[in-house]
Amino acid sequence: MSEKTARFVYADNAATTPVSPEVLEAMLPFLKEKYGNPSSLYSVAREAASAVEDARAKIAGLLGAKPNEIYFTASGSEADNWAIKGAARANMAKGRHIVTSKIEHHAVLHTCEALEKEGFEVTYLPVDSEGIVDPDEFRKALRPDTVLAAIMYANNEIGTIQPIKELAAIAHERKIPFFTDAVQAVGHIPVNVAELGVDMLALSGHKINAPKGIGALYIKAGTRIKNLIDGGGQERGRRAGTENVPYIVGLARALEIAFARIPELERVRALRDRLIDGILSTIPYSRLNGSREKRLPGNVNVAFEFIEGESLVLLLDSVGICASTGSACSTASLEPSHVLLAIGLPHEKAHGSLRLSLSHENTDEDVDYILEKLPPLVERLRAMSPLYEEFMRGEKIFKV
Ligand SMILES: *Cc1c(COP(=O)(O)O)cnc(C)c1O
Fold first, then answer.
1. pTM for this one?
2. pLDDT at 395 over 90
3. Ligand 1: which atom is nearest the Cα of residue 329?
């Protein structure tokens, strides 16, 4: 945490979240005295085994699933990989076509690209200017040889929420299994697999105040899928490896807390709206990326003309504000965000975008502080921008 700044504001909750004290407390006994291997027979091990099964039952209950439909993984990325590769390879006799969208997380996109190298064909559906998949285009993309549809529930960059229930129903008309990466949705909006009608759903712990390195995959009973890891009989023989007992316990506790908190996220939604309105009304040549209504409660993503998002993120850091350009995963590369390009932003606007993702821990004072610090920083970067200078001299007409 920065010592010198007037305030520290963590506004990058879509990248990761801190482990909450309640979650840590639930985990600690399993890092200390209750260290048994769930597969062993003595009582200290049976305690660990029943903690894993309690966690599975709790998570199943929250998601509207049965306990034997919940599988623990080491991350959201692992759950995405397993669902897609596992279902695609299990259904190869039927066909080798997959339908997904252009705005998926890299854990989905790069998995699909890996399958293309194995001979699968993938349709990457476009989205509209708000980042929504059109159900009619989705229907048209399905073919007799389509073996899997994978559409994310909520986008990690622009917070757009997809009509998953409708899309899953369309896939089922053709008997095509439907997978959703719900890593950003779970704990932020209501998620119930029975209500949604999905066959597989991925979630991750560290986006909802559990530790990094734990995730889960819901696999509806009867779904054809290859095993992920061969070895011992853990996770019903489908994903071997001694269970990460403390993290599994932590994940269940975090989900329990997050699901109970969803009604309180109205406050976060109000903070989000005040932040969006404050930015758009005080900073000229700025626009909101994504949908105003079909949007995660904490997501703000704005494009600023004439500047680089990376420079803005560094200046915000110097005043104690943690934010992000696009997604944390793509920040290391200089490629503009594939999500912002997919909603139609030209390269320069995609480069000048900023994501602020709020959580229940953010306050009105945090939003005041961002609205105080952000406009002069954007102005400072624009003052150094040759593009802005040309624009202000009227030498070029930019479309805003
Ligand atoms: C963070 C994230 C993932 C990856 O989860 P990890 O646990 O970090 O591997 C996948 N999909 C989405 C939408 C995410 O936001």
1. 0.96
2. no
3. 1
